[in-house]
Amino acid sequence: MDVRLPRVLLAGLVGAALATAGCALQGLLKNPMADPYIIGISSGAGLGAAISMFIFALPVQLISFILALMTIFTVYNISRVAGKVPVDILLLSGIAIGLFLNAITSWIIFKTESPHQLIAWLMGGFWVVLWSEVKITGVLVIVGVLMLYRYAWSLNVMLMGEEQAQYMGVDIERVKLYVLILSSLITAAAVSVSGLIGFVGLIIPHIMRIIVGPDHRILFPASTLMGAIFLIFADTLTRTDSILCLLGLPVGIVTAMFGAPFFIYLLRKRRKTLYA
Length: 276
What we know:
Layout: H1 4-29, H2 41-54, H3 60-79, H4 87-111, H5 116-123, H6 131-149, H7 152-158, H8 162-167, H9 172-194, H10 200-212, H11 216-238, H12 251-275
Helix pairs in contact: 1-6, 1-9, 1-10, 1-11, 2-3, 2-4, 2-5, 2-9, 3-4, 3-9, 6-9, 10-11
């Protein structure tokens, strides 16, 4: 009750949050290679962790969450052009801000005598999980995910083009703003308690899109459920003394080890199907 269950629940919440945010951003940006970290959220959270650990000795989760949200609001305001947010400028702004924040984090690591704690956090994992973290993260993730579901139809229409979506009555800029805010909220809530866990927000929506199709009304809940299952499975491997020698590894390493080869396999299989 105090060790295993909160860890399993938190892994499920983080996996669901990352997969749902990745699904929303891939639909919004019309890019299947987009993930929750592409617009600098992870960089802001990483800098927040570095600041809290080595400068002000503040709670890591709180500062990471605040810095992640500040990052997305900065990227959004930089990307605004005449009251609109072009997707290409949003991506470029996120990449630029992310690289800048990564540079500051790297500088802090370089200047720190014992950076092992921060490096372990940046790799992502669930080591000591408290029920308080599960409760706070659960509220933020569940509310954010359910609110994202409301924009499933709008994202479906926007896939046909922004002009067609406007013709059908969709407020494009409002949808962009709310999807970005909600995706950033649940990603920041997840990253602040788990560190940086890659590939979940990238591969899970992509795999589920192949399985269930591009309709976000089905794709959203499918990605949420599969993201939770995948991350719980990956975290279980890190707690199991198996022939894979994964015992004690950060879960971010495990998701990358399994996610990258499987993702490449799916891409090659899909390419052969398309061009056969």
